[in-house]
Specification:
molybdate ion transmembrane transporter activity, molybdenum, globular, binds adenosine-5'-triphosphate, Rossmann fold, single chain, membrane, ABC_transporter-like_ATP-bd
Length: 351
């Protein structure tokens, strides 16, 4: 998807003034409260009309003030999922799901009801009244309804922020696989970098109604490592699990890692905090931590009191975090070899 935006909009004291062109399928919109994220979403969907400018989605002009083009929301083929599901309370789940689908010309309907209900695990809810759904179920129905409209662009405007942590952790893997599966390009608006890291490839960062930079969520999270009490979460794709002495052995590239056995035996993406990694200058011959990797230092990044130390462990990248005194005491430097130790219990399954 190629999205070209050049817009000006004044709303009271706030002015939104942005010019960008992005190419990609999974794009994040990030920025503090009041920076203009929802304004952008509303301008794209057509709920709000810009004072002047242009919105072009692939070859279609959705808005062009010079050419006097301003497609109505119904004709833009941009679907949106909000923080609250906004389902039609008088319709059951099935009718809610099919609402946009029925209004989409048959030639543009690439998805069928069964594909979507299966992917989102909501087929058992079809006859239910939407008032009898949990928060997570409502959001999945809202997403299903948006997907079934087969939009050219899906805008997800903080779709998980009303859900509790446990529900978010259940829904994120669903979202990841479903959105990939249906290959519908999307803009994902959120305050959460951890959601962004799992759901986007590039991120547009906004402040005061202006685009600051186009970057990615991983870079932003590294920059915020020192201020985050959980540190930076390394994402490790682990495979080939099997039980070894009450632990589970996983393959991480060319490395073998051990995780506590309360995990299910399944490949997946796991999180390991930079704060849970202990760096040693010499081989610690006896220790309780079950994981010890040799790493070559590839980066040293001071961030307000904390120092990120990037290691290459047999081709896999790991970011550890130490206090600045440790850099001098351990003589950490680019190219040096260190040992990284971490517990089998330090991992959290992400997908
Ligand atoms: N109709 C309006 N009239 C005047 N000001 C408005 C109007 N709508 C939005 N604003 C202002 O525009 C600014 C941007 O709002 P917007 O909702 O786009 O921010 P946001 O980045 O989505 O914030 P949040 O993360 O809190 O949802 C805010 O300062 C808001 O108060």
């Amino acid at each position: 998807m190629k999205l070209e935006v050049s817009l000006t909009k004044h709303l009271g004291d706030f002015s939104f003034d942005t010019d960008f062109c992005v190419d990609g399928e999974r794009i994040g919109i990030f920025g503090p409260s009041g920076s203009g994220k929802s304004t952008l979403s509303n301008l794209l969907t057509g709920f709000l009309t810009a004072d002047r400018g242009l919105i072009q989605l692939d070859r279609r002009k959705l808005f062009d003030s010079d050419a006097k083009i301003n497609l109505s929301p119904d004709h833009r083929r941009v679907a949106v999922v909000f923080q609250h599901a906004h389902l039609f309370p008088h319709l059951n789940v099935r009718k809610n799901l099919l609402y946009g689908h029925k209004r989409t010309p048959a030639s543009q309907r690439q998805l069928e009801l069964a594909d979507v209900t299966k992917a989102l695990n909501i087929d058992h809810l079809l006859k239910r009244n939407v008032t009898q759904l949990s928060g997570g179920e409502k959001q999945r129905v809202a997403l299903g309804r948006a997907l079934l409209a087969c939009p050219d662009l899906l805008v997800l405007d903080e779709p998980l922020s009303a859900l509790d942590k446990q529900l978010k952790e259940q829904i994120i893997p669903f979202l990841r696989t479903t959105l990939r599966h249906f290959a519908i390009p999307y803009l994902y608006i959120s305050h959460s970098l951890s959601e962004m890291r799992l759901l986007t490839d590039q991120v547009m960062q906004f402040a005061d109604g202006r685009l600051q930079q186009i970057t990615n969520a991983d870079t932003l999270e590294r920059e915020r490592m020192a201020g985050n009490r959980h540190g930076y979460l390394n994402h490790l794709t682990l495979s080939d699990p099997h039980e070894v002495d009450n632990l589970i052995s996983y393959r991480w590239g060319a490395n073998e890692l051990f995780l506590t056995a309360n995990e299910r035996l399944q490949d997946g993406l796991f999180g390991l905090s930079s704060k849970d990694i202990l760096l040693c200058k010499k081989h610690p011959h006896a220790m309780s931590a079950r994981n010890l990797l040799t790493g070559t230092i590839t980066g040293i990044m001071p961030h307000k009191g904390a120092v990120g130390v990037e290691l290459n462990c047999n081709g896999e990248i790991l970011l550890a975090q130490v206090v600045s005194q440790a850099v001098a005491e351990l003589e950490l430097d680019i190219g040096k070899t260190v040992y990284a130790a971490f517990k089998a219990s330090a991992f959290r399954r992400l997908t």
